[in-house]
Amino acid sequence: MTEQEPTADLVIQARRVHENVIADPMRFRSAAADLVGRARRAGDREALVLALRALAWAERARLADAQAKILLDEAARIARRHRLDHALGDVLLSRAAVNQELGRMGSAQRDLDLAGGLVAVGRAVEVRFQRAVLHQNLGRLGPAATAYRELLARSDTPARIKVIAGNNLAMIDAQVGRYGEAFRHLDGAARRAGQVGPALVAMVLETQAWATVQAGRLVEGLRLFEESARAHEAAGLPLGEHFVEYSDALMDLRLLPEATAAARSAADVFRTMGVPLMGAEAQLRIAQLAMLLDDPVAAERAAATAVESFGRQDRTVWKARAVLVRTEARLRAGSVDAADLRRARHVCATLTSAGLASSAVHAHVVAGRIAAKLGRVGDAVRSLERAAELATARPILVRLLGRVAAALAARMSGRRGETLANCRRGLRDLARHRAALPSAELRALASGHGVELGQLGLEVVIEAGAPRHVLDWMERTRAAALLAVEPAGSRDIDDDLAALRAAYAEVEAMTLQTNRGPTAETLLTRQATIESRIRRATWQRHTSAGPAATPIGVSRLRELLAGRILVEYGILHDRLMAIVVEPRRSRVVPLGTAGTPAVHLRALLFALRRLTESRPPASLAAARLSADHHIGTLRELLLDPLAVAPDAELVVVPVGQLHGVPWPAMHDGPLSLAPSARFWARTRTSAVDRRRARRVVLVEGPHLPGATAEIRRLHRLYPDATVITPPHSTTAAVVDLADGAGLVHLACHGLLRSDNPLFSSLILSDGPLTVQEFQARGAAPNRLVLASCQSGIDVSYAGDEVLGFVSALLARGTAGIVASTAAVPDVAAVDLMCALHEGLISGRTLAHALHAARATLDRSDPAAFVNWCTFTAHGAA
């Protein structure tokens, strides 16, 4: 094309390129840039204006709004200078959209007002559409929804506008709780988007994912977010807005580190690209997440930034949301006053008038808590009762908050029965929600939504004073996520499990070489990426897990205990207690401040770790004195007040950090642990049902001299056992042999992952066998001995949940496990393990066999002392 090219053709091309850019901005951006150059050379002012507008829209799509505005400002100047009124109107419409994203709502309004008198008659629809978008961004949802419905009903509305109008109307419907309408509009928008282009397909998918999460279908929403991310990447679009809305889904699933990372990624993108509109929304998510992570200082700081941004943008509803987080952070920090109560009430009014009932529930709860803190009980009860009323028929997490509000209001009014009834209903709702989640990780995290309901109910039953009611209530929340077990199935993660083992092998190989191959940081990043893929796959499975089992009655529990004593620990606020179920009576025993045992536990574990190291005799002696001191102190804190016989057989159900206590070191009789009384009872029944499983499997892991001697000696005790040794002791071989076996003994290294216990692992010949893989394969021997470091540590979660090797295998049906709560010396464990198995062969349970085996150790030897302390029986077998 030369400078003599007909200018009419350039104008036509400019309009066509603009439409193409709207449909697929990354693909046609270069065409728009090329057309700008051609229009300049040809001196065609109208074509240049329209080409600059097209290029600006492509810049906006990649979040370069500042650059887009520069291009649109130039286009507007040229159009004004040459009196190209229709073209100027079009440019002002585009600039209004960019100004909104830049947070300049007043400028956007002025552009729209000017554009309304300039655009061609056929473009009036575009003006109405842009006004609706401005209403929506300002929080005027009613006028925005009305305008979108009118646009969808008009026959002259372009397909592109119908797609976005349907998409945006669905967002409004979802916000105000009209989910059926929202999905109907999204179905229509999705059909039209496929005819327009990939950018709009990605946009609609994003909204479908977000609305699905808002409706309470969290797992389906996660799957749609994955699809949306792929659609954005295929269209070459940035993921900033995706990260903002994805963080909402992760937040509701209590995947808080992942949600925080997504929100921060979004904030970084919008800050770098200069998009204040979405940047403020990302900042609000960061504030909300800081609250959930119990960091009110960071929450108040982030919320204050969001308040300022929304204020500059004249976004009243969004500002109210940020004010609510800032006020709640002040409440959590204990610094609220009457002004905060007034602000919270104003937020309640703003959100309610905007039709955002779900958000208003949270606001009324915060207002109620502030009023209670200020001693205004009547005001607090009214706010909380209003929250409970608004929460009716809302999505599950909003209903749960409504149950908390109703329970708090009843508690403040002295209505104990009503308090307990609301807590029961809330926990039943939570149980149904939890059972529908597809993985143990998500179910364990979901229990965090019920913490306050559990505490309010426990407070009431303790006041009532009946120990059996206290035990029943504690059992409602204890390890409840593990009672619903997903079916076996690993095909969707098999390749990633193999890749994870390969990454582990590379890390191992790297330790044997210098200055060759990838760096440790690269390998660890690759490993983290693979783990993330595995987790995401398990989050999105279709689940068929059944509902959790009902609590076990005290009479049936005593029958199964058969003379044993159950000790179940619990925490109410910051106070530790224990329920003691004996053959003829039950008791509630207060035990003091919950944090005190944790201090001594940390010191004890440090001393035990020192005893496993090669140190001078004086250093080992000091470590032993320290260990003895802290064992004695823990006994005084946790067991002595219970006044049970020193040689009684105990079944201990820990809570929180007490899962890491080396309990056998504190008690002179046989002892076993369980995640809950229900779990122990189930293993007791399982132990009886599976007596016929006689197959014994002995497994030697790599790089452990003690393991070789251990397996050889055990083979002499079990001459008919199946024995696998390196290089044949692979993950696949172990899982296949373990499933359904009567007894499996694993002598191998163990690695604890406190950051993600489902990736805690046993090291076999081809790499790590993780908890995740054991769960996915569905393997469960009747009895299991894990002669490896830290294999017995279950990591505790909010809501009295635990995850780890022991809990995962007990959930799968294993009836008894022996494992260690700390690092153990290799060779020194051989004698203990052989003595243990001699007891099992003679017909003893794991608890009795381990108790007898520990008595054979020479505790003056540091390594033997560590083994004496840390190996523990779990379950009843």
UniProtKB/TrEMBL annotation:
This is CHAT domain-containing protein. Residues 633-875 form the CHAT domain. It comes from Virgisporangium aurantiacum.
